[in-house]
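Protein 1 of 2
SEQ + STRUCT:
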Amino acid sequence: MFSFPLPPLKPCRFLRRRTRFLVEADVGPLHLPNSGRMAELLLPGTPCFYHPRPTLKTVGRIILVESQGVLVGVDASLANRLLELLLREGVFGPLADLRKEVRFGGERLDFSARIEDGEALLEAKNCNRVEEGLALFPDAPTPRGARHLTLLADFARGGGLAYAVWMVQHPLARAFALDPEDRALFRAAKEAEAAGVRLLAYRVRPTLEALHLGGELPWVWLPAQEDLEGHHQGRG
């Protein structure tokens, strides 16, 4: 569909995670722009690819990792760049007056725009967790994500256009779901959908040269955690 070019990348091997945003690789310390756990991706010895850009603390920024024979994108900051690409290509309708990093309800959302003569708020999320073909979000609890969905719901109830868009940087994903274990996020998403927020997930196929945006992934609603617990206790 569309492609987002990546900066020049070099190979390396992951050794260990030192802090939330810092990993140790065989080439030295690298910035990891992703707060998720990624335990299934970041294994000692895993082949990775990084963009060399030395700073006082790192020698570059990790962009891709190799897993199950495919490349997976781990730079979560690129989700909003991918959403911007879709917006500018008119995927959501004729675009005007695009603004980034907008303040709304005490939070910062990725975009506000005028789409088909309507005011819109949009938030991009990144996903690279895939289990048996199902992309699952989040990889770690995200109260901030729940707050964003609540704000989008409020905006939609007031007559605005609202979008929450997940970019799944894993080519083995065949469908997308929210993990019901994050109860606050799951409830906020259900309420957002009922309020008119469009919840979307897009396929992204990473290569060494670019992130290739595909079509939408089918959305799957898993049973809520409360339903699962009720079933286990014989109430459902």
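Protein 2 of 2
SEQ + STRUCT:
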Amino acid sequence: MKTGFIFLFLIVSIAGFSQQKDNLLTKKEQQQGWVLLFDGLSTNGWTTPSGKPVPGGWQVKDGALSTAAGGKGGDIVTTNEYTNFILTLDFNIAPGCNSGVKYFYTKYATGGNLGMEYQVLDDVLAEDNKKDNHLCGSLYDILAPDTKAKQLNPPGQWNTIKIVAKGRNVEHWLNGKRLLSFQRDGSEFGSAVEKSKFDKTVPAFGSVEKGKILLQEHGGTAAFKNIKLLILK
């Protein structure tokens, strides 16, 4: 009995030790050059798009950066801009929520402040679920995700995003599955932009070389954690 208890204790201890804690880099990630964009404790490294401190409509709670219900916090962005990168993060949304993660967010000469949006959505209950290119994992209003590869956990459960941007090539991933792959200078992308709400931007939408990362507040409750970025050479 005593030997069995010790053996069970060791298994549980090893399992707990091996489980990666939130908002920390593993030794391998540190060696590879990954950086944390959210420390799990504060809003350091984030501002409003106009450069002001993160408003009270956002809160850091239980190791996550979250929109407060009814808080009207608005969008927040990283203080730094990025060109070639891999971005990963976890998100958890309330039923009916509409949110998003934008990248290459910058000011266009015509069109205002814009970014390419990885749509975060409750595909079942959110109001904006009528178009394929508005569903979770899409490049919002432009390209739809691969529904066969898509494995979206329901509201209340965590999902993991990965966005890969290198040169003109971009990929959207969800929970380890690639949902979308496109070239920002490709004909498919260009045709889709022409049919979107971004057809009149100057320069052409998605053609900018760098921009910030944006977390969208769209009236729903959304939480983000483990926000990590690797700069690609």
